[in-house]
Pyrophosphate--fructose 6-phosphate 1-phosphotransferase
Amino acid sequence: MNCIIAQSGGPTSVINASVYGLVKENFNLEVFDNVYGGLNGIQGILEKKIINLSSMNKDELEAFKNTPSSGLGSCRYKLKDFSENEYEYIKLIKILKELDIKAFFYVGGNDSMDTTAKLSKYAKKKNLDIKFIGIPKTIDNDLVLTDHTPGFGSAAKFIATATLETYLDSTVYMDNGIFIIEAMGRDTGWLAASAALAQINGKPCADFIYLPESEFSITDFLNDVRKTFKEKNHVYIVASEGLRDCTGKFITQSAYSAHDKFGHAQLGGVGEYLKNLIMDAGITKRVKALELGVMQRCAMHCASKTDLDEAIMVGAAAIRAAAEGKSGYMVSIKRETNSPYKSSTVLVDANEIANKIKHFPKEWINKKGNHITVEAINYLRPLIADNVLLDTEDLLPKYKVFSR
Amino acid sequence: MNCIIAQSGGPTSVINASVYGLVKENFNLEVFDNVYGGLNGIQGILEKKIINLSSMNKDELEAFKNTPSSGLGSCRYKLKDFSENEYEYIKLIKILKELDIKAFFYVGGNDSMDTTAKLSKYAKKKNLDIKFIGIPKTIDNDLVLTDHTPGFGSAAKFIATATLETYLDSTVYMDNGIFIIEAMGRDTGWLAASAALAQINGKPCADFIYLPESEFSITDFLNDVRKTFKEKNHVYIVASEGLRDCTGKFITQSAYSAHDKFGHAQLGGVGEYLKNLIMDAGITKRVKALELGVMQRCAMHCASKTDLDEAIMVGAAAIRAAAEGKSGYMVSIKRETNSPYKSSTVLVDANEIANKIKHFPKEWINKKGNHITVEAINYLRPLIADNVLLDTEDLLPKYKVFSR
């Protein structure tokens, strides 16, 4: 009897560590004869793109643990409800049966939990002996019913480190300008907030942190920036890509219309937009904007050891859940204690996770809506703990890549 | 009798390690009673912004060694020739004499070597007993008469690591698009070239690397990209920000006129420009461009140990040069052997460095002008060797910051 694991949605630095944790725990507990890997998620499995992960040797498995980005490939494929399109369900189940697969593990975000819940429901309805378990993963940290998501801690650590280092870079001259760093997060501010972890002598490097959870006001923003620039001849700003105005529209969308009047097309993201606001307001022309981009989800060289360990932990817990006959659940992370930090896993109904978003709490944003509170920092800090020592090959990190 | 060290121009990750090397070697050899630090280069020294670096304790000094970005502050101040404006020379010498300063060390690029050469010439003409020594520093690796410059190796390592990791990120889907990474280097291609160090199974991740030393042809570029995209459904492109067309103009400058026809202003750099070229040519709409930006010069968390050690080495050699009564020289790096890699220092005339640029050798670019040769990779590889273990504070790298 065998099982299969696949990955879906956007990559993270530690997504393969969950595969590692699952393969390793299966090796220890001898639950399944083989762990198969579905390439490119459900989409690839439906095309029978399947490999045998149990045939990896120890070295390959260890290297795979530390390899960033969905090593099994990913997809953006959303299963329809089986009442709408049962064909895909029938096709998938046939493929799983051919390989004697009794458990299906899906590593992903809330779309993948939707898939997990639907497949589990279908299997139950059809009395099929196949378990479906979700394993959380997303740098966005926006899944409900889990303290946080694997992948977030490493992204947070990269953002905090980049903030610390670019802060130093942006303050070397006597006439320093304004520096803006743009973090990912179209719907939630978790990633941008983690920049607050970068501190010098106990004070955050960032003068201002703007999150999607707080309505963005151009007037307040320009007042903030003008005042601080007058005081310090320098301003360090962190902005989430998902900033919205009072109507709930992305501010970069409003920008299109605003700038069209002058015949300009607004390219780039929030950072460029804020840069233009500051320059147009005549505060200074010395403004730099840096978009951290996909590095936030693949900078394994700057990963959090805690995040890596928890990614392994949720993978291992998934095997045990299947062994216990559970189906339709996601392995969730519970924070046991904060100091010293300790976490464990619990199972939550995948259906309760699907299509929901966990926002950055309003009470963790300061009154002015331009920074975060100490409570938020206390929540974030342990998640970036400790460094991962990577093996090297040709003097760069050694990563294991499957040909797909 | 005392000495002073100051920093000038753009920061690097290891620029403070040269200050550390100098302070440490002075401590060992007891050449000067105090090592002063001039804040914000010549500009700050002229305003008497000077601190005493010899009063740092061991912990502070060790933390400062590993702190990225000009810790003493920087400036973009170019001294005029003394025949044009002797006033500044007189003012500076007066300040140095007041502090009994017998040696002045300037850490910088070719502008700083120009300053070093001018001051040394002035001191000789006026029979002043003050030595002027240059210490090389630039991520651009564009100084002549040195095998390479401190700061370059760490930038190269960050670029190569980012290339490896974003390559993995850009290949997870079945329908992968095109990824473009933009490296710094307005005049030279050294930084962009170092992306070639990122390899998987012995093959560079980058399909194409375009450098300023090779004329950029839009037609050839689009042919390259179209062909590879058809073959692999994915293209990974590295571009130097300084790409030029056949007339020697920056391609992003040409872009302004090209796009004005349609009423669009071209924002962003080379990456965005190439992205638009690809989309306009109808190759695919799935194109992402990432500008690595200032992270290239401050990502100490990804520094090269070899680079750090050499930055220390040139600082230490500068003290010895002053002790030997030399003036008007820059400490240069000589590659003794490549495998195993070994380097030493030699003194070269600062005047020979000033205002010159070392280009990436044409013979290290392939015939098609879209990649680099094995010889180039052999030159680059040892410079990124080994990792720097950083002390941490609040779970992030511990950096020492002077209030300026």
Observations:
- The radius of gyration of chain B is 23 Å.
- The CA atoms of residues 52 and 386 of chain B lie 32 Å apart.
- Residues 305-323 of chain B form the longest helix (19 residues).
